[in-house]
Design brief:
about 50% helix, 11 helices, Rossmann fold
Length: about 240
């Protein structure tokens, strides 16, 4: 059998839609991303209210979405977009690491975010990774978002913890182990080594968890584990 090449997960150019209300930002992103042979910029939008029509017409694989736009913000557009069947992946553009809107966008199914001052090569890499099915949030950034979530009102935290624990209870023991490992920011290979599983088995377990909760990516699993209070400050399961 021939070994897969690095580009196999994205055999065709990634179809990218850029949505930002600033024409200079859009032009800069188009110039930056358009230079990549494996990224095809299929269109641009200036506001969130244009996203649904643009997605219908252009069928992008990934939408690079500004969060702050005048008529419809990127959060609202992301929430609406991710409820659709066969929705494209969304990377949100922001100026803050742990902004409340970023957290909500991730909960709604965005695959990650990039800062507007991120080096060009990293933005290109983020688009490629999301198209290949990998979220673009490092464990450190995920912890920042979790800390932001923990800073919300006490009543909200209690309700969220109860709901999260009820959902976690629906997992098998193996799925729970995998979910906890995802919550610690571990890759599939790291989870496989820790739990003595094959990488293929880990991928299957992650897919089952995503399907059970109708999640879009593993960052949402990590947030669920955090909401359920299953990790202490060191990323360990307190019940272990």
């Amino acid at each position: 059998m021939t070994a897969p090449t690095p580009m196999d997960p994205v055999a065709q150019p990634v179809r990218l839609l850029i949505v930002d209300d600033d024409p200079l930002v859009r032009a800069g992103l188009a110039l930056m991303l358009g230079g990549a042979d494996d990224i095809d910029i299929v269109g641009e939008g200036a506001d969130g209210c244009e996203v649904a029509d643009l997605v219908d017409r252009l069928r992008p694989d990934v939408v690079l979405m500004d969060l702050r736009m005048p008529a419809m913000d990127g959060l609202t557009a992301t929430e609406a977009l991710r409820t659709r069947p066969d929705a494209p992946e969304v990377i949100v553009l922001t100026t803050f690491h742990a902004d409340e809107q970023v957290l909500r966008a991730i909960r709604a199914g965005a695959a990650g975010f990039v800062l507007k001052d991120t080096p060009p090569v990293q933005i290109v890499d983020s688009v490629r990774r999301v198209a290949a099915g990998d979220p673009v949030l490092s464990p450190a950034v995920t912890r920042q978002l979790m800390a932001r979530a923990a800073g919300s009102g006490q009543g909200d935290r209690v309700d969220r913890t109860d709901r999260a624990r009820q959902r976690i209870a629906a997992l098998t023991d193996r799925e729970r182990e995998v979910a906890l490992a995802v919550g610690r920011g571990r890759s599939n290979a790291e989870i496989a080594a820790t739990l003595y599983l094959s990488v293929a088995t880990v991928k299957t377990q992650v897919s089952r968890i995503l399907a059970k909760f109708d999640f879009n990516n593993r960052v949402q699993i990590a947030l669920l584990v955090h909401d359920a209070g299953l990790l202490d400050d060191d990323g360990r399961d307190p019940a272990a």
